[in-house]
Each structure stands twice: as structure tokens, then as C-alpha cells.
Amino acid sequence: MNQTIVLAGGSGFLGKALATFLQQKGYTVVILTRGLAHMNEGIRYVHWDGATLGDWAKEIEGSKAIVNFTGKSVNCLYTKKNREEIIRSRLDSVQVLTEAIRSCEHPPDVCIQAGSLAIFGDTRQVCTEEAPHGSGFSVEVCEKWEEAFFARELPQTRMVLLRIGFALGKNGGALEPLVKLASYHLGGTVGSGDQYISWLHIDDLNHMFLTAIQNEQLSGIFNATGPQPVTNKEFMYTLRKVMNKGWAPKTPTPLVWIGAYLIMRTDPSLALSGRNCIPQKFLDNGFTFLHSNLETALHDLLRS
Ligand SMILES: NC(=O)c1ccc[n+]([C@@H]2O[C@H](COP(=O)([O-])OP(=O)(O)OC[C@H]3O[C@@H](n4cnc5c(N)ncnc54)[C@H](OP(=O)(O)O)[C@@H]3O)[C@@H](O)[C@H]2O)c1
């Protein structure tokens, strides 16, 4: 049986981590990238444009699974141009992958789409998969993304969408800038500090992807986050503790706005809003977490 897994947009933070993990599990990994075709560390990078059918579609024929990570990073200023690209890159890739799967003689067993917990907006309420959606640009992105993914049925391919939380890993992701701030003694509470961070360790996220690939009973939408979300205040306190940094000044909301626009060149909502999500369906399916405690998860990533 073909054990190839195709990671569309797999050259980024989550894709690279999953690629290494899947290789260790014995799978062959192919990454679809807008960059040049090449081979690196046993992974074949195949060129695509993320929007139109091409030779790359042959990679999907007879593969075990596709995971789609494609999308312009949301870590940017929300100008009209950036907003359009954030949406377009996600919808185009979903649509063209659906086309590619539909034209396969032997379609993959499962197609897994990366989504986001941002669909719940900015809320302190506990959010299982059933919780109401929030409002605002990020919510609109997630809704369009999910609608596009489930728009067309794939008769022979199971479809799973993981609404991913704040993934903590090495070499990139959202943790890196926070570690940098903390190392300069600037790792204080951000804004009110009441906003939730639904975090999970990258190892657990990789296991969730593997579960979605291997468990033929799983389909539909899943919250892919840890079982113990924390407030920003608690997160920053724990980060400082693990990094052996003492007290650090709070960053009041107006300063976050100024810093986000002028220094970080990103939208302040990424730091000031949050959500309190639970991976209800994974828990119901008996998923066990390697890292459910924030302090030990950070210790594992930063001190080991
Ligand atoms: N990291 C997290 O904690 C997190 C949380 C929730 C949701 N997510 C979602 O999960 C997905 C993967 O996250 P990530 O952190 O791995 O993102 P990432 O590092 O930014 O990687 C995304 C990949 O998408 C491709 N891409 C970027 N801009 C594109 C564009 N305009 N058109 C087509 N392709 C484009 C790039 O691949 P090439 O340049 O090789 O083509 C890039 O490597 C994203 O959709 C993200 O929104 C991530």
C-alpha cells in the first residue's frame, strides 16, 4: 500500500514539523511548494502555484493522505491587499486540491485541512466544536475556509478539518517572538491579560494529524488544541518562570497597538484577543496528550 503523504504548503512551521514526524513513523513525505522543486532530508519538494492544476497533481494519485497547510500568514498588517491574499491563498488551495482529488483514479484515503480556532472570535466562554462563531475579519476567514473545504463531497476520501490552536514548537511559530520579548525582560502581561491562549505542544498536534490519518472513524471538524487553555497573564508568567526571568512590566493595550503597528508590523488583535477552547471531540475519542501542563510543555521546548 502507498504510504506517501502529501503536505501542501508544508514548507512552513507546522508542515516541516509534521514532515519530520511522519518520516519517523515510516511515511514518505512530499511537500507542495511555490518554491523550486528539490530534495532535502529525504523529502521531495514539488512545485505548484497553490491555485491551478498542474503536473504536481500526479503526486496525489494513490497517496495515503493530503494535509493542506497553505495560506498567507495572518501575522501581518490587515491592509486590504493582505486581507485579500489571506483569503485567496486559502480558498484557492482548497479548491484546486479538491479538483486534483476528484480527478484521481485512486484518490487518497483522507484529506486533512488546517483551520483555526480563531473561528470562535474573542471569547472567555469555553468553546467546544459546537460553540457559536465570533465576529470580525479572522472569523470571516475561517468560515470561508471551512465552507470551501466542505463545499464539494469527495466520495472516496475522508475529510477532516483541524481547528488549530496556538501551537508551541521549536524554530518558529508564535512562541518565538514571545521568547525574544521575555529574554529582554519584556515578557509581561499583554493588554488586560484576561484573553485566553488555547495552546498545544507541537508533538501533540503531530499526533492529532497522525490520528486523523490513521483512524478511519474520524471525519468532520475537530478542535486541535490542548485540554488546559490559560489566560495571557498566566501564559506570560509561566514563560518567565521557565526562562528564569523575574517580574516584567505589563504592556498596556495602547502600547500593544503602537508596538504592533510600528514595530512588529502586525495586527494588534493577534495579541489582544483570544479564546478558551477545549478539544472535546479528540477527548471523546480517547486521545491522550503528552503535554497538558503549560510549564512542563515550555520546559520541554525551551530547556531540553
Ligand atoms: N502555527 C499555528 O500555531 C497555527 C494556528 C492555527 C492555524 N494555523 C494555520 O495552519 C496553516 C499552517 O501554519 P504555519 O504556521 O505552518 O504557516 P506558515 O509557516 O506561514 O506556512 C504556510 C505555508 O503556506 C505557503 N504560503 C504562504 N503564503 C502563500 C500564498 N500567498 N499563497 C500560497 N501559499 C502560500 C508557504 O509555502 P511556500 O512558500 O513553500 O509555497 C508557507 O510555507 C496556516 O494556514 C495557518 O493559518 C497555524
Commentary on this structure:
By secondary structure, the chain is α/β, with parallel strands linked by helices. It has a domain at 4-169 and 200-225: NAD(P)-binding Rossmann-like Domain (Rossmann fold), CATH 3.40.50.720. The model has no long low-confidence stretch (mean pLDDT 97). It is globular and about 60 Å long. The protein is built from 10 helices and 14 strands. NADP nicotinamide-adenine-dinucleotide phosphate binds at residues 9, 11-15, 33-35, 50, 69-74, 85, 89, 114, 116, 164, 166-167, 173-174. NADP nicotinamide-adenine-dinucleotide phosphate is lined by residues 9, 11-15, 33-35, 50, 69-74, 85, 89, 114, 116, 164, 166-167, 173-174.
Strand % is 15-25%
Q: Provide the helix percentage.
A: 25-40%
Q: Which structural class fits the helix and strand makeup? A: alpha/beta
Instruction: List cofactors, ions and other ligands.
Output: NADP nicotinamide-adenine-dinucleotide phosphate
